[in-house]
Design brief:
By secondary structure, this protein is mostly helical. The protein has one domain. It is built from 9 helices and no strands. The longest helix is centred in the middle third of the chain and has 35 residues.
Length: 234
């Protein structure tokens, strides 16, 4: 599903500078970004973007929430390094493409004149921009501060909602549909990505005290998820 266009028409600038500029523009001028920065068939920059987002999300998660660190080996450093690589280069990109496939199916059913599969994949990839800052947890040393869990949960809910808004705006811009129509089209994939994978629903549970789901997301319980996956291949 990922292709590289050498000289894309209207595509994104490559390299770290291009990724940084894309991130800033997504957070400040999303309509302009989705109008000018999405190129048919040019998915490689979007994939790179998701990899970077997954990296920063997971690093922050591991630093602030020790319980999320995997325990593959006796060395915690080695376990964290392997967990970081898996989260960055496997869980993030594979999750993106699986949800993008679902989004394409939904779009076929609900959008008459679509902008193309590759554009849908890119919109989903770039909509994750706010989640660079979404991995924060409550360190055990600060868990006793009464207001902190709710404050962190509110921050994570805000970022997840921001990602959903970017997803809606991107789909509306790229496929030339109304915002309400786009909201309906992306509803289920957005819940999966921002509610489950990035933990927005779990943060909302903490904030309102109501349980919406019963299973922790992959990035929140890295050790459990990855060890379970490893057992299937042993």
């Amino acid at each position: 599903m990922t292709t590289w266009v050498e000289n894309p028409e209207g595509g994104r600038e490559r390299g770290p500078r291009g990724l940084a500029r894309a991130w800033v523009e997504l957070l400040s001028r999303p309509r302009r970004f989705f109008r000018n920065g999405i190129s048919p068939g040019d998915q490689a920059p979007g994939l790179s973007f998701v990899i970077v987002v997954s990296f920063f999300y997971t690093v922050i998660r591991f630093l602030t929430l020790p319980a999320s660190r995997p325990g593959f080996f006796a060395s915690e450093l080695a376990s964290v390094a392997v967990g970081l690589l898996l989260a960055t280069f496997i869980i993030g990109p594979v999750g993106l493409h699986l949800v993008a496939a679902l989004q394409v199916v939904v779009s076929i059913a609900l959008v008459r004149d679509r902008g193309g599969v590759s554009k849908t994949v890119q919109v989903l990839a770039y909509a994750t921009a706010p989640m660079v800052m979404g991995g924060i947890g409550v360190p055990p040393a600060l868990a006793g501060m009464g207001f902190l869990p709710e404050l962190v949960a509110a921050w994570r809910v805000f970022l997840a909602a921001w990602g959903c808004v970017l997803f809606v705006v991107g789909m509306a811009t790229v496929h030339e549909i109304s915002l309400p129509h786009a909201a309906v089209v992306v509803a289920v994939p957005a819940i999966i990505v921002f509610g489950y994978f990035f933990g927005g629903l779990y943060a909302l549970e903490t904030l309102v005290g109501v349980e919406f789901v019963s299973q922790q997301p992959p990035t929140a319980e890295m050790k459990t998820q990855l060890l379970a996956a490893g057992e299937r291949f042993m």
